[in-house]
Structures are given as C-alpha cells and as structure tokens.
Amino acid sequence: MLWRESTESTRVGFAVSRQLRLAVQRNRARRRLREAYRAARDAAPARAALVVIGRPAALSAPFGTLLGQMRQALGAIPGPRLA
Fold first, then answer.
1. Measured distance CA(42)–CA(30) in Å, rounded
2. Which residues contact 18 (CB under 8 A, 6 or more apart)?
3. For 21, left (φ over 0), alpha (ψ -120 to 50), or beta?
C-alpha cells in the first residue's frame, strides 16, 4: 500500500500487477481487495490518498487473511481515523 497525506477526505485507488496474466484474475483480485477495504475502512486515516497494490497472493489467500492484512496496513498509517 502506498499513501500520502491529503487535505481532502480519503481516496483509494486499486492497482493489480500484470503478473496475473488474465484480465479475469486481475479483476477478481481487484474486487477482493476492494471488498477487504470496505470491511476495514474504519481503520483508514481520515485524510489520505491511498493506492492498494494487488499481488498474485490476493487471489489465493483466504479472505480473513486478506482482511487482517488490510487492517494492519491501514493501521500503520499515521493520522486521525475515520469516524
């Protein structure tokens, strides 16, 4: 995950590597990451620009693991949290 501080409310973008050869796989990984972010959004900083970078493990990891990693990554970003 890449991030930078912002004066606007939190914005999130999702990028998935072309290491996942098929577009179907890239889209599935992007959907799983998007859903994990939605579930962990309360751990996100209130004002930041975020880019979540998807790797091949995003397809095979159990969703609970993906969610835990998302919460951990969002929690590591300094700043006030979303209410």
1. 20
2. 26
3. alpha
Phi, psi of 54 (to 5 degrees): -90, 135
pLDDT tens-place string over residues 22-61: 999 999 999 999 999 999 999 999 899 999 999 999 999 9
- Torsion on CA atoms 16, 31, 45, 5, rounded to nearest 10: 30
Beta strands in the chain, from DSSP E residues, in sequence order: 2-5, 11-16, 48-54
Phi, psi of 2 (to 5 degrees): -110, 150
Tokens found for residue 9: 């409310």
What is the residue whose two structure tokens read 């095979």? 60
CB 45 within 8 Å of CB 4: no
